[in-house]
Amino acid sequence: MALLRLLLEHDAACAHTLVGESFLEAGDLTTARAYLERATALQPHWARPWPALAELHLKTGDREQALDSARAALRCASGLRARLAAAKLVHRAGGEAPPRAQMIAAHIARSYWPAAALALAFAVFLVHPWLLRRLRGALRRAGAQEKAADSAS
Known about the structure:
By secondary structure, the protein is mainly α. Helix content is 85%, strand content 0%. Helix 1 (2-10) packs across helix 2, helix 2 (12-26) packs antiparallel against helix 3 (29-42) and helix 6 (80-92) packs across helix 7.
């Protein structure tokens, strides 16, 4: 209980979410709803309470509210695992979410683009001398063909 008081003093939204999730697991949906709604009111852009609130609405049969909460979870989720779980909740509530492959590709692009750019620059640097030799050879051949064409005329 002391830990919960400490959490409540320093991070009220986290404390309300933890208590709400506990009541949700215990089956006390009315109390869980009060705590989870308070958590979303305190920090509406924090993703953690939204999936629990969506689950609660699904248990009570309120699909519209469940869909709104699931969409909020998807909108607020920052990590790939949280986004995939939120998308699954959106589908369970009867809504449309981005395809799984699209979310994974976006995550990879967002997470690894600096490494990909560096790898591309490194590959160009490694291939650079080879490209120059090929270009010089092509220019010499073009010049030789031009001389041959001039001498034939």
